[in-house]
Amino acid sequence: MNTFSAPKGTYDLLPPESAAFLAVREALAAPLKRSGYGYVETPGFEDVKLFSRGVGESTDIVTKEMYTLTTKGGDELALRPEGTASVLRAALEANLHRGPLPVKLWYSGSYYRYERPQAGRYRHFSQVGAEALGAEDPALDAELIILAVDAYRSLGLRDFRLLLNSLGDKECRPVYRAALQEYLRGLDLDEETRARIEINPLRVLDDKREQVQRQLAGAPRISDHLCDACREYHDQVRELLTAADITFEDDVKLVRGLDYYTRTTFEFVHGRLGSQSAVGGGGRYDGLSQMLGGPELPSVGWALGVDRTVLALKAEGIELPSAGRTDVFAVPLGEQARRALFGVVTELRRQGVSADFAFGGKGLKNAMKSANRSGARFAVIAGERDLADGEVQLKDLESGEQTSVALETVAATLRERLL
Ligand code: ATP
Ligand code: MG
């Protein structure tokens, strides 16, 4: 058979596994919903310039990973590779920043990056994200980190670490940047990396190659260059995290190599995911609003990867929530029973009891097989003779016990026995 397959680097979510995905997405968002974050949804594509400016011309996302397209009307668009730029664009466009600050928003959806597909790295993936716009307050940075940790913990995840760093601000970062460039220029590096020293030197710290990492041992550290204000801010974030019973590791090589990323930066890494170990990350981006033509709007946010969180749960052997099963399965024998039981199923559903039906005019044997396979607790079975007596058979699929119940009262009886 010559049918279609899902595009390279993508996969479909199907029952029963899709239930776990949905549950993870809900668990990651739950702490935000009870912390004053409002739901935001933006389009799946934006003006390509929003990302080239908002993510950065020199990042892998923009130079290599973006899906871009030109519309019939001549607009240059890109499928969104991440959420922050879109959310900030939407907030500025709606003037939310003129109201009470901070504006706290959360989102959940699909993102697209043209990457080399491998385990935990896809071309279409899902994130749950949060952004807090318009406040410079270490408690806000701490809040977001705590909410992410609480989300992971609520799922039962244990084997993850929080890496933390400060990138300084517009006062102290340029001094550090120059010192780092000076050091990097003296190393033995390939041409592409030498070019990166001039455009985006902090990114070099992030190079995964052993021969590069070896040479970075003596590189100047941002922690030795923070100005007093940044140091004080970072100490407060650390104190608040410690007070909230959160362990973190200082990682001076953790960077977001763009000028509008400032101060707090963090990443969550999982211990059993191989090289795609980052399950989430975020940080402060005090300069981004101005990069997009907006006012000064110091902000902080994170994005957690849903796909990798599901993989992390599997790797830890944590039982994933399974597909919601229905409580009742109706098995009619004959046309009259079909109508009567379809009515019962509709009534049960309206009363809040989950129920399903043997569709497709199956015989008793096959219909009972469907009932058993559905995982339902009860089967309601009826033939012509039962109906003539105004009755249906109620079968407990766990114990096998079967009783006659009046057709009129079966919905009420089931409700009582189930709730
Ligand atoms: P990586 O270093 O693994 O490429 P990243 O720095 O590009 O990650 P972010 O842009 O910070 O990732 O996105 C936040 C989270 O989204 C990541 O921690 C990860 O869990 C998830 N993520 C990013 N890219 C992908 C992808 N291609 N497939 C699946 N999940 C992804
Ligand atoms: Mg990436």
TrEMBL record:
Q: Which CDD domains match?
A: HisRS-like_core (cd00773), HisRS_anticodon (cd00859)
Top EC group: ligase
Catalysed reaction, written as an equation: tRNA(His) + L-histidine + ATP = L-histidyl-tRNA(His) + AMP + diphosphate + H(+)
Positions of the Aminoacyl-transfer RNA synthetases class-II family profile domain: 23-321
- One short Pfam name that applies is HGTP_anticodon
**Binding of L-histidine, residues:** 82-84, 113, 127, 131, 256, 260-261
List this protein's GO terms for biological process. Answer: histidyl-tRNA aminoacylation
Name the InterPro entries for this protein. aa-tRNA-synth_II, aa-tRNA-synth_II/BPL/LPL, Anticodon-bd, Anticodon-bd_dom_sf, His-tRNA-ligase, HisRS-like_core, HisRS/HisZ, HisRS_anticodon
Query: Which SUPFAM superfamilies does the UniProt record give?
Result: Class II aaRS ABD-related, Class II aaRS and biotin synthetases
* Subcellular location as annotated: Cytoplasm
Which of UniProt's keywords are assigned here? Aminoacyl-tRNA synthetase, ATP-binding, Cytoplasm, Ligase, Nucleotide-binding, Protein biosynthesis
Where is this chain primarily localised?
Answer: cytoplasm
Superkingdom of the source species = Bacteria
Q: Which GO terms describe its molecular function?
A: ATP binding; histidine-tRNA ligase activity
GO CC: one term?
A: cytoplasm
Q: Which Gene3D superfamilies match?
A: Anticodon-binding domain, Bira Bifunctional Protein, Domain 2
**Per the UniProt record, which EC number(s) apply here?**
6.1.1.21
PANTHER family listed in its UniProt record: HISTIDINE--TRNA LIGASE, MITOCHONDRIAL-RELATED, HISTIDYL-TRNA SYNTHETASE
What does the record note on quaternary structure? Homodimer.
**Similarity comment:** Belongs to the class-II aminoacyl-tRNA synthetase family.
Recorded protein name is Histidine--tRNA ligase
- The gene name on file is hisS
